[in-house]
Amino acid sequence: MRIAVIGCGHVGLVTGICLASIGHHVTCVDRDAELLSLLEEGRLPIYESHLDELFLRSRCAHTLALARDSGKAAKDAEVVFLCVGVPQLENGDSDFSALDTAARQIAQAVDTSKLIVVRSTVPVQTGEQLLHLLSVYRRNRDVSFCVASNPQFLREGSAVEDFLHADRILLGVEDSASEITLRSIYAPVSFFWPTFTAPS
Fold first, then answer.
1. pLDDT by 10s per residue, the chain, length 200
2. 177: left (phi over 0), alpha (psi -120 to 50) or beta
3. How far apart are CA 170 and CA 192, in angstroms?
């Protein structure tokens, strides 16, 4: 599957590299030219066990690309993972500027409907806010967006192991198509899907 990962911080790099290592075609996007130059040279700005090996292997297999243009990456992708920072401000509010920028660039560039997956740590109801932004910014009124949540539970130092051998993967979706797509993305990962029984 063609996937764009927006944001090459700790979560974005681990997510993008691991998804590429299990066979997806991933484009990792960041606005930081210096960071992208470092990555182009084959050097990672973070240390995680096995991550450098998976990075080089994915680059050699051409399953992992690097880009600065999130709009083009989103246009070419089937699914977009948002891993941008949403830091907390001194007054307790969250800084959504990076998320807003990503939403605008994606919405204005794509010409087909997209599944947008929020992997960043964000406050409650961010998905609704993001869906509103995407609808406002879109240029093509025939394009629609589905927003899903896929919070990360990656511990620094064991993030690759946590990703590839997760005991659970949490998905928040509003439609069956999004669920099917995300299950397909994570199908190669060794994990346990809990079964929930609705109360009678």
1. 999 999 999 999 999 999 999 999 999 999 999 999 999 999 999 999 999 999 999 999 999 999 999 999 999 999 999 998 877 777 877 778 888 999 999 999 999 999 999 998 787 788 888 999 999 999 888 999 999 999 888 888 889 999 998 888 889 998 999 999 999 999 988 554 443 344 43
2. alpha
3. 11
C-alpha to C-alpha distances, 45 to 29, 85, 156, nearest whole angstrom: 15, 16, 13
DSSP 87-111: PBPTTS-B--HHHHHHHHHHHHH-S
> Would you say the pTM of this structure is higher than 0.85?
yes
**DSSP-derived secondary structure for 174-185:** SSHHHHHHHHHH
Structure tokens at 95: 């800084």
Domains for the chain: give ranges and CATH numbers: 2-186 (3.40.50.720)
Residues 6+ apart with CB under 8 A from 72: 109
